[in-house]
Design a protein that fits this description.
alpha+beta; 7-stranded mixed beta sheet; 11 helices; globular
Amino acid sequence: MGPGALSDLLKGLPKKEDKDLIVGYDSSDDAAVYRISDDKAIIQTLDFFTTMINDPYLYGQIAATNALSDIYAMGGKVISALNIVAFPEKMDMEVLRQILKGGAEKVHEAGGVLAGGHSIHDVTPKYGLSVTGIIHPDKILMNNSCKPGDVLIVTKPLGVSIINSAYMINECSEETFNICVRQMTTLNKYAAEIMNDYPVNSCTDITGFGFLGHLTEMLDNKYSAEIFSENIPMLPEAHHCAGEFIITSGGQLNRNYLQDKVEFKIKDFALEEILYDPQTSGGLLISVPSEYGEELLEKLNKLEIKSAIVGKVTERQYKDVIVL
């Protein structure tokens, strides 16, 4: 669902006060956090979606990697996961076996245990995970606690939905699609392990709301951000495809909701689409004090997938985000 519809829906839900619920849906954070002792809290999240790829094994890996990501965005550690499955009654069960195999392997790579799950029949396959993680209550990374002067780091290139759409209509190369798949199946665990050694002020993972949607949540109507367009990491061919109007409905939902909050100082339609583009299993968006930015970036860039400093947080300006 688009960010506008979801926000309106949540406002009407009944609420119950609980002093141990540290993070609920009020903050639109990546996951819920509940304190179970003075030094331990559990992180709970779930995510599932329909397939965007023909290979069921890779689909399972992508969906699991995406679901596990919220734990890392909050600075936590994965401990267990449950499968969420919807599957057509008459479809070959080998397809489901491959989906579950791919998902289970990613849970194990994350250091967690797959503890069960729930399945139903449906007309189209859907798969994901309900994930539980742990964290010290004093070390939770919120998605809306950035500070002026922070630099913003993105840990995976943008343009995932654009490339997935282009591949479906044979408008991007096999090589680029394979890079995209490799990125979607790479856990944010490795970037988070490096990030957790630094005094990060705020973190989120970039998924359905796109870079600009998740950045706007991080700014929380308190601050603004200046984005350096030349530093935006993007998948090969993504800029070309967006320029050819290979764009997604999700990206247009994000644009419609966010366009009054963003000013583009440059004229680059394709780049705009990439910044609005929903990401499947996207990277982390990290807000860290500027004095740590280059050092953190250098360590992140020892990983296979390269990161980039894409902007900075400022005091509140006339727009939430200004793209330079």
